[in-house]
Predict the 3D structure of the following.
Amino acid sequence: MTLQKWIEDRAIHGFPTFSVEEVRAADLCSSEQILQNELSRLCSNKTIASVYRGYYVIIPTQYVLRGSVPATYYIDQLMSYLQKPYYVCMLSAAEMLGAAHQRPQQFSVMTTFPKRRVVSTRNVTIDWFYRDGLPEEALITKNTETGTIRISNPLLTAADLVQYQQHVGGLSRVATILEELSEQIDINNQFAPLATYVKKVVWQRFGYILENVVGEKKLADELYEQLRTSSGYFKYQPLSTSAENNPSSRDNRWKININVEIETDDI
């Protein structure tokens, strides 16, 4: 059996990815050099694409012209191969929750340390973010073409957007997304697994935006009550992480120094 036929058989049987170790185990090539040459040739003719050292995705017909496949097609299989927990986060999660309004240029994935270098294939750029651990109870699954993937729930998505505000285009963009995402946020049911995972300052910024920009007073009140019982005293913190900390304008409830003006976009 040729390597190409072996790959075609995998695709037919619902296996969209493979590792070089699996190819070696199948004993399809007489030498390592021939194997590497064949893999290189199949990448060149857009039969497969390398998404990690020694790990490949089989390019289905509908993506051949692009020469790559979206990360949703293989991210779950790749992370299983790497034996790393993960979840799709921020703008990518917001898009899958119906709240991004436009497809993000990067595909954002949260995983755990240590860092690994993963290839950005043609037309697919993955933004990697790292934490010491992930909040398993705050993750949900979504169906994809090849199975399921793990994404952050609405509250975790919102918190990540606020925490990584500089990576997603600033707080005005964050607030625009929160206007729609807030419909899916249930503070009383979604807060507990995230109480200590999310930094207190992020909750303060999020609460301020909910109440004063998005106009979700009920959600803001629920968040404030959760924080009051679990986190205690607030210290004044800047609203934006990318602007000078100017204490001249303050929000006393959330203990926020308002150092940037937030304007949401018209949807």
Q: What stands out?
A: The chain has a mean pLDDT of 92.
